[in-house]
Amino acid sequence: MRALLLVVLAAAAVPGLAQPLLVGAVLPQSGQLADIAGDMQKALLLWQEARNAAGGLLGRRVELKLLDDRSEATASARLYDQLIEVDKADVLIGPFGSAATLTAAAVAERRRRVLINATGITSNTQRAGTRYVFQVPAPAAEYGAGALAVAQAAGYRRLHVVARNDPGSREAAARFVVQAAAAGLELGAAEAAPAAHIPVQIAKARSHDAQGWIAFGQPEDAADTIIAFKRFGYAPWMFLAQGAAEPRFVTLVGRDAEFAMGLSPYEARFATRGNTEFVQAWRKRWSTEPGTVAATAYAAALVLEAGVRKAEGVETERLRAALATLELETPIGLYRVDANGAQVGAKPAVVQILDGRREIVWPEALATAKWRLPYPRWDERPKRAAP
């Protein structure tokens, strides 16, 4: 018996035989969100492979325990309870989307377990008094920072603000209105404007003599706006729509996308620390370009790793304290949080379509081109060549 005990103790002392470090996460592996959430799983796998190839984390091999919520946000609470109670996960990474993150965060706070918020951007995921949930992506409320900076630099003071009718877009627009007003700009309250209402919004912008049109929403919203602009012969001096940063926007409107600005939490061309290596590793492993979901999930894993190293382990209170004071440069920007664990370091970049290419025009440190303003009138643009 004594000999057996010595063998067990000796094995525990060998780093290669140490108990694996189990990282638990819940994400859609089936259902309607599975395709767009697929890059989250790929990013966590890429990080796991890199860590284990380098000897693990604090001498422990990293293992992932990924549960399928079947694209149902309400399943997160039950599944995170399972990761804690049944699977005995050492550390947790949050699920896909703000709705699922909200329910997962409630479990983390109730069970007093650290959770890295990998994708939740709405403010309700990081409420006042939150202690165990730490946000990695830029919050929705910070999406307008670049729009405000560009408008001010260009000298545009009268702005028209529109938002898609969803929590993230409304939150981004509301915060932008407050910040713009504090900066002395003139604008009305943000309004939800589906495609059928865009002509009404154009009329309001014209009556206000708005110099800039700022919109928060999806690529389809930006495309619908462009189509209406052209139909009614309207062109503000500056057009910035959140969804115009996504490649799908250019596909929807073709050459009419030129000079539109958008908001992007991540670009593969970001000159951020570790991004070149991340992009190269992603291309080699998956033969595609990494997008926002991939980069944000990978950044979440890097934050978790740095927190564990700083805490010298996974004991909850030490890890919580480490993450609360951690500052880390990641591919999506700086990780730094406030007293409620909300991200205050990273902010989305401003992208502009120039000569058919998506260029980063703000912030200056990441810029690949200088913005071109004013947004040209439709009769000033080159005519399309005949087919």
Short description:
This protein has helices at 2-13, 34-53, 76-85, 98-111, 145-154, 167-182, 198-207, 219-232, 247-253, 275-286, 292-311, 316-325; strands spanning 21-27, 62-68, 91-93, 115-117, 133-135, 158-163, 186-187, 191-192, 212-216, 238-241, 261-264, 328-330, 333-335, 349-354, 357-362.
Number of helices: 12
Q: Radius of gyration from the CA trace?
A: 23 Å
Biggest sheet layout = 5 strands, parallel
Structural class: alpha/beta
Distance between the termini: 86 Å
Shape by Cα distribution? elongated
Strand order in the largest sheet: 2-1-3-4-5
Word description of this protein:
There is one protein chain. The chain has helices at residues 2-13, 34-53, 76-85, 98-111, 145-154, 167-182, 198-207, 219-232, 247-253, 275-286, 292-311, 316-325; strands at residues 21-27, 62-68, 91-93, 115-117, 133-135, 158-163, 186-187, 191-192, 212-216, 238-241, 261-264, 328-330, 333-335, 349-354, 357-362. The protein has 12 helices and 15 strands. It starts with a helix and ends in a 25-residue tail after the last strand. The chain has a 5-stranded parallel β-sheet with strand order 2-1-3-4-5, with helices on both faces. The protein has 387 residues and is an alpha/beta fold. Mean pLDDT is 92; it is low at 1-16.
